[in-house]
Structure formats: structure tokens, C-alpha cells
């Protein structure tokens, strides 16, 4: 009986992964260069994403704050050095002054790059709308993460 109970608990642990916050479940791997504003925040490893808003500024979430951040642009597969990436260190990191790490209120930060990036087909600023989108408008959300709830990940942006 106890062996059956242990087997059931192990099966349940495998069936329900603990790390559930890095997923865009139901997402798909994007075409290369289709989200040229998507950046990878790196501190020796990829830890968060962000969006390039002009050639020297990135917007991200304040919960992604680290003292030093390297911004990687032009990435498609963050697990492979593809040769077209630009790596730029942060010069200044500004978290919203009212950011609350407990409630995640005002969870936004700006990252000023140490030098302007070269804009091209793989690196571009996010196109901003001139007005509010009407209710029901479909949106694109991009980032790196697992596309399947069981942990499947292509390594590319979704």
C-alpha cells in the first residue's frame, strides 16, 4: 500500500511542474526577426525580457531589477549565439518610484543603454499606436518561455 502511495505522489509531482511562471502556454515559436523589439535581459543568464522603445531605452518589469543588466538584442534562440545579436550594458536602471514588490503594483522599469543600438531588420523599437485600441482587439505578447504546460521550450521567442 505504501509503495502505491509513493508511486502516486511521484506521479503527481511529475505531472504538475512547480515552476509555472515562465510560460506562454498555447504560444508558438515566432518567425526569426518577427519581434525585433523583444530583448533578453541577461546577468550571465537570461532572466527576463523587455521591449526596445528607442535606440537607447528599454522598458521591462520592475520585478526584473538587477544592479547590472546586459541587454541582448536581435536574439531569436537565446540558447545559441547566432551572430547577429547586439549586447549592450545598462547605463542606468530606473524602477517606478511606487513599485511594490509584494503587490507588484507599478511593476515597470526603464533601462538606459550604455550606447545606442544599431537599428536594423533584427533590432527595432516597438511600434506604438497613435490611439487606444478598441475593446476586443487582438494583441501579440512576446517573450521567452515554455509553450507547453509540461515544460516544452524551443528556446526561441514565443
Explain this structure.
The structure is a single chain. By secondary structure, this protein is mainly beta. It has a domain at 38-113: Trypsin-like serine proteases (Thrombin, subunit H, Beta Barrel). The protein has one helix at 2-15, and strands at 38-42, 46-54, 57-60, 70-73, 86-95, 109-113. Strands 1-2-3-6-5-4 form a six-stranded antiparallel barrel. The longest helix has 14 residues, at 2-15. The protein is globular, with a radius of gyration of 18 Å. Mean pLDDT is 84; it is low at 1-20.
Helix content: under 10%
For this structure, what is the CATH class of the domain at 38-113?
Mainly Beta
Number of strands: 6
Mean pLDDT: 84
Secondary structure elements and their pairing?
Blueprint: H1 2-15, E1 38-42, E2 46-54, E3 57-60, E4 70-73, E5 86-95, E6 109-113
Antiparallel strand pairs: 1-2, 1-4, 2-3, 3-6, 4-5, 5-6
Amino acid at each position: 500500500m505504501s509503495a502505491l502511495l509513493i508511486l502516486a505522489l511521484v506521479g503527481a509531482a511529475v505531472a504538475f511542474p512547480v515552476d509555472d511562471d515562465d510560460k506562454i502556454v498555447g504560444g508558438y515559436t515566432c518567425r526569426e526577426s518577427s519581434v525585433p523589439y523583444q530583448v533578453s535581459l541577461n546577468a550571465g543568464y537570461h532572466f527576463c525580457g523587455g521591449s526596445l522603445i528607442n535606440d537607447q531605452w528599454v522598458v521591462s518589469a520592475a520585478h526584473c531589477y538587477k544592479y547590472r543588466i546586459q541587454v541582448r538584442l536581435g536574439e531569436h534562440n537565446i540558447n545559441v549565439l547566432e551572430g547577429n545579436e547586439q549586447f549592450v550594458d545598462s547605463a542606468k536602471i530606473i524602477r517606478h518610484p511606487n513599485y511594490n514588490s509584494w503587490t507588484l503594483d507599478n511593476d515597470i522599469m526603464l533601462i538606459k543603454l550604455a550606447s545606442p543600438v544599431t537599428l536594423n531588420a533584427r533590432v527595432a523599437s516597438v511600434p506604438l499606436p497613435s490611439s487606444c485600441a478598441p475593446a476586443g482587439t487582438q494583441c501579440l505578447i512576446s517573450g521567452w518561455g515554455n509553450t507547453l504546460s509540461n515544460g516544452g521550450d524551443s528556446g526561441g521567442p514565443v
